[in-house]
Amino acid sequence: MRTYGVVGWKNAGKTGLMERLVTEITGRGLSVSTVKHAHHSFDVDHPGKDSFRHRAAGAREVLLASRNRFALMHEMRGDEEPALEALLTKLAPVDLILVEGYKRDAHPKIEAHRAETGNPLIAPDDPTIRAIASDVSLSVDRPVFDLDNTRAIANFILAEVGL
Q1: What CATH number does residue 132 fall under?
Q2: What is the pLDDT of residues 79-122, one digit of tens each?
Q3: Cα–Cα distance, 70 to 63 (Å, whole number)
Q4: Contact predicate 101/37, CB 8 Å
Q5: Tell me, what's the pLDDT at 46?
Q6: What is the reported pTM?
Q7: For residues 2 and 93, what is the distance between their CA atoms, to the nearest angstrom?
């Protein structure tokens, strides 16, 4: 499946860009799935709920389903974090998978950059970053887009992946 990433430091605008890209690309009639990497523990479940109780009792996986959606929760129980490639195999086929995070993986990416954060660009040391979406003008060796120009960024990504 075609995969493209959005990376950047904290508060660089990654999530907002991801949200706008999903809206823009699905609005063109293409199917999109997303993967979000978290550097911290997270939970989509709540104490007291049946599915939480199943997990707390020791279930390795809990599949929660309704007529509107399903969620599969897999407890790592001390195992290593799975690689992005392994996680992608769990997704149903779509036209494009957008990945937020996983900046050290080899898939092509666009870097979100906000000058106010004071963070340096990741791109100069990472050839997998094919372009930068920034709120300021930059002089770099790859394309730079206005962080808010979602249409242009989507056009670039779709051309990169051949859609």
Answers
A1: 3.40.50.300
A2: 999 999 999 999 999 999 999 999 999 999 999 999 999 999 99
A3: 7
A4: yes
A5: 80
A6: 0.91
A7: 10
